[in-house]
Design a protein that fits this description.
Layout: H1 9-13, H2 17-26, H3 41-52, E1 63-67, H4 71-78, E2 92-99, H5 107-116, H6 126-138, H7 144-168, E3 172-176, H8 181-190, E4 199-208, H9 222-225
Antiparallel strand pairs: 1-2, 2-4, 3-4
Helix pairs in contact: 3-7
Length: 231
C-alpha cells in the first residue's frame, strides 16, 4: 500500500489529485493494531495540534480530548465499550468530549472571548444576539440535547482531521461509536476524569499502526450520492 510519510509543507501543497485520493484509500478503520509499534511523542504532538487547530461552528471549540494511557481503565472500558476491541494493540486511545450547554449566554463563551480571542463579551450585544438567533431560530438548538448534539458534531470534525493527518504520516486509526454512553460517562466520572455537568462523551478513536491488510473500500458509486444542480 502507499504510505505518505514525512511530507514537507511544500510537498503536501504539491500533492496531485491521484495522491490525495490514494490517501483516502490508505485510510482504513483498523480493527487490529500492532502492539509492538508506538507513535512517537513528536508525531503524536503533531496530531494533537491538528485537533487543536480544527474548525468548529462559530469557532466555539466545544471539545476536549482525553488521551487514555491508564491500562486498568482501558481494560475496564472494554466491558462497556464493545467497539473498543482494538484497544489492546492501539498506540493511543482518545475519548472526545463535547461541551454541554454552549449558548450565547454561557460563561464558557465569555471565557473563550476573553482568554482566547482577547476581547470583551456582552451577552446583550448585537454579536451575542446573532449567536442567539443562529442557535434558537436557524438551527433550533433550544434544549440540552440539541446543544450537546451540535457540540458533538464539532468533535467529529476534529477527529476526522486527526485521522486524515494520521494517514498522511503513515499511521492508522479507527473511530469508535460502539459503547454504552451512560455507562462510559458514569465510569469516567467515577474515576474523576469527567465532569458530566460540563462535558459528555461524544466519540472515541484508536490510533496506531495496523497489523492487518487493507480491505478495498466498498461505497455507493458517485452518481448515488452526488448531484449537481445547475439551474
Amino acid at each position: 500500500h502507499i504510505l505518505f510519510v514525512n511530507f514537507t509543507l511544500k510537498e503536501i501543497y504539491m500533492m496531485n489529485r491521484e495522491e490525495v485520493v490514494a490517501l483516502q484509500h490508505q485510510r482504513y478503520a483498523t480493527k487490529k493494531f500492532d502492539p509492538a509499534r508506538r507513535i512517537s511523542d513528536e508525531d503524536w504532538a503533531a496530531l494533537v495540534e491538528v485537533g487543536r487547530l480544527s474548525p468548529s461552528s462559530l469557532g466555539f471549540e466545544p471539545w476536549k480530548m482525553l488521551l487514555l494511557n491508564n491500562e486498568e481503565m482501558k481494560q475496564d472500558l472494554k466491558a462497556i465499550a464493545w467497539g473498543a476491541s482494538m484497544i489492546d494493540g492501539a498506540s493511543h486511545f482518545v475519548i472526545y468530549l463535547a461541551r454541554k450547554g454552549v449558548n450565547y449566554e454561557t460563561p464558557y463563551i465569555e471565557r473563550l472571548m476573553q482568554e482566547v480571542r482577547h476581547r470583551s463579551y456582552d451577552p446583550e450585544s448585537a454579536y451575542a444576539h446573532r449567536i442567539k438567533s443562529f442557535q434558537e431560530s436557524d438551527f433550533k438548538l433550544n434544549d440540552e440535547r440539541s446543544l450537546f448534539d451540535w457540540a458533538s458534531k464539532q468533535t467529529y470534525i476534529q477527529m476526522a482531521n486527526m485521522m486524515n493527518a494520521a494517514a498522511l504520516m503513515g499511521m492508522d486509526s479507527c473511530p469508535i461509536e460502539g459503547y454504552n454512553k451512560a455507562k462510559v460517562e458514569a465510569y469516567l466520572e467515577g474515576k474523576g476524569v469527567l465532569d458530566t455537568s460540563e462535558f459528555g462523551v461524544s466519540v472515541m478513536c484508536a490510533f496506531g499502526y495496523r497489523n492487518e491488510e487493507i480491505k478495498p473500500k466498498v461505497r455507493w458509486n458517485t452518481e448515488s450520492i452526488y448531484e449537481v444542480i445547475d439551474q
